[in-house]
Amino acid sequence: MPLGTMLGGPLVGAIGARPTLLLCAVAIVVLGLAAAGFAHSRRSLRTPDGPTVTEISAPRELVVPGSDNAEHV
Fold first, then answer.
1. Could you give the CA distance from residue 62 to residue 32 in angstroms, rounded to a whole number?
2. Of 6, 19, 56, 71, which residue is 20 to 30 A from 30 by alpha carbon distance?
3. What is the predicted pLDDT for the residue at 54?
4. Closest CA to 4 of 34, 29, 28
5. Given this model, what pLDDT does residue 69 score?
6. With contact defined as beta carbons under 8 Å apart, do 59 and 47 qualify?
7. pLDDT confidence of residue 56
8. How far is CA 26 from CA 5, 29, 60, 73, in A?
9. What torsion do the CA atoms of 13, 14, 16, 22 make, to the nearest 10 degrees?
10. CA 19, CA 29: separation in Å to the nearest integer?
11. Inter-axis angle of helices 17-46 and 3-15, nearest 10
12. Cα–chain-centroid distance for residue 62?
């Protein structure tokens, strides 16, 4: 049985349908804000001084065969 059915049924019976929907909507917004705050704090811990350039995102030099930059590969 789904968790929403197990919690929602008795909650609707206790406080009514409209307050239950309002409570669920507020809970979803609060959980979303908490998740966004958690993600933002993890991101700021990972990159304290700005974006980090990784090997995948770093531009590569164009190597032309027979030119003087061919050995820099």
1. 44
2. 6
3. 56
4. 28
5. 54
6. no
7. 59
8. 18, 5, 48, 56
9. -120
10. 15
11. 130
12. 35
Q: What is the DSSP letter of 69?
A: T
HEC secondary structure over 38-51: HHHHHHHHHCCCCC
Distance CA 23, CA 12 (A): 11
Q: Cα(27)–Cα(65) distance, rounded to whole angstroms?
A: 61
Q: pLDDT value at position 53?
A: 53
Supply 41's token pair: 């704090």
Instruction: Give the CB-side neighbour count of residue 22, counting CA atoms within 13 A.
Output: 5
Residue 35 CA to residue 43 CA, distance in Å, equals 12
